[in-house]
Each structure stands twice: as structure tokens, then as C-alpha cells.
């Protein structure tokens, strides 16, 4: 080899090594940088107790997932996070696109990486739907994040009105919750099934929000009849983060030793 050829060879070798290094780094990075799992803001019992002050911005929350549900500062509507975009269903039933500077008092997010995709070709009500998810993703002691894109014969949701201080407990607020009924609507179910052991921290069992494809409505799901759709489910084995409010007297002073199981039932389900 001439000296020029030597130089060229060395340069090519270096380029190959750098590329190989990048490749290895690229392959290894996502797992280390973004482990899959649930990130949660505050606890459901604190929300039941009336701790509605936001303490994490949507921009920050977005670093921990592209999929999830929750609520907003002052209990200002139902949150849906889907494909990295936040939607807010307020008590007027309309869908708003919240600013990323808005804060949340309670939310659960993850990066949805479905390990099951299943078409649904038969009508299912909410109960039958939950049984189907239990059948397809049977590991009840792990979390299951799921998304359904579907056509619904019937959908019933609710939202909650924004609260002023002093904040009443959630069970008081939902006594006057606006309920929305839809017929023949296409949209998405965004939900989690959480293990029984999350009691007090999150909602054991199913917690589902809905967003209409045309953004004409949505909210916290009370019931539905699904005609057809596609289910994507992700069994999640990591509860990565639980961010507790660090500047909240209301949180610090909440009695979180009380068993709020019955309260949660009245808040989550149809009355
Ligand atoms: Zn909800």
C-alpha cells in the first residue's frame, strides 16, 4: 500500500468502528434510557381526599410516557394522553388541547408497547370487554395498559367540574358530575388494569378513559357497547416512578390511612 492508500484504509477502518459503535450504542440505549413501566403522579387516595393542586407539568410528565390517563390542576377535566398528545375533556363535554405548562395532581402514564394485538369482531359491553382483556392478558399481578380503536354503539362518560378552594372531597364533586351519552361513535379507549395491591395508591382493576376520533367528546368511561375494534394490550411489570407532591401542605396533612375503597367505587363507577 502507498502512504495515501494506508491513510484511506485507516480512515475507512475508523469510520467502520465508529459506525459499529453507534450501532451498538443505539441498540443498547433505549432500554437503559427509557425502561418500560408505569410512572404515576401522586396517589388516588390523595385525590379522593381533595388534593387537587397540580404538582407536575404536562411537559415533565411527557418524559415518562406517551400514553395514559389522569386529571388536571383543580380537577379541571379528564386527561387522555395518546401518542404523546394530551387531551382534556372538561365538564362542558368538549375536548381541549391543554398547554404543556398545565399541571396535574394525579396521572398514570407509560410508553405503550403492545405485546398483544387482537381484533374484536363481536359486540362487547364493558363487563365482557374486561373479561376479554383478562383472558388475553391474564397476569393480574402486573399492570396492563391497553388501547382500543373501535366503533361503539353506545358510550357513556363523565367529566368533573373544575374546583375552587377549599377543595371538597372527590365523592362530593362526582355527586354532580356531568354525564355524556354517545351513540354510534368511533373512538379510543385508553386504560389501565392495575393489580389489587395498588389499593390506596391507584385504582385496582380497570380505569378507562375515552376519546372520540373526531374529538367531539370523551371522558372517564362509565359504560359502553363496543361493536368492533382492535385491542392493543401491554402487560407492564415495572412501576417505575411514584412522584409524591413535595410542596403540598394539603398532601402532607391528608389522612391517607383511611380505607377509601367504598368512596373510590362511588367515584369511579356509574351511580
Ligand atoms: Zn378517570
Structure description:
The protein is an alpha+beta fold and 271 residues long. The protein has one domain: 2-Layer Sandwich (60s Ribosomal Protein L30, Chain: A). 25% of the residues lie in helices and 37% in strands. It is built from 7 helices and 15 strands. It has helices at 3-33, 44-48, 58-61, 126-136, 170-173, 249-253, 261-268; strands at residues 38-41, 56-57, 67-71, 78-82, 85-89, 95-96, 103-104, 106-110, 116-120, 124-125, 143-158, 179-194, 205-212, 218-236, 239-243. The strands form 3 sheets. The chain has a 7-stranded mixed sheet, with no helix packed on it. Strands 9, 10, 11, 12, 13 and 14 form a 6-stranded antiparallel sheet that branches. The longest helix has 31 residues, at 3-33. The N and C termini lie far apart (85 Å). Mean pLDDT is 90; it is low at 17-32. Residues 69, 78, 207, 209, 220 line the site of zinc ion.
Summarize the entry for a quick read.
This protein has 271 residues and is of the alpha+beta class. Helices cover 25% and strands 37% of the residues. The chain has seven helices and 15 strands.
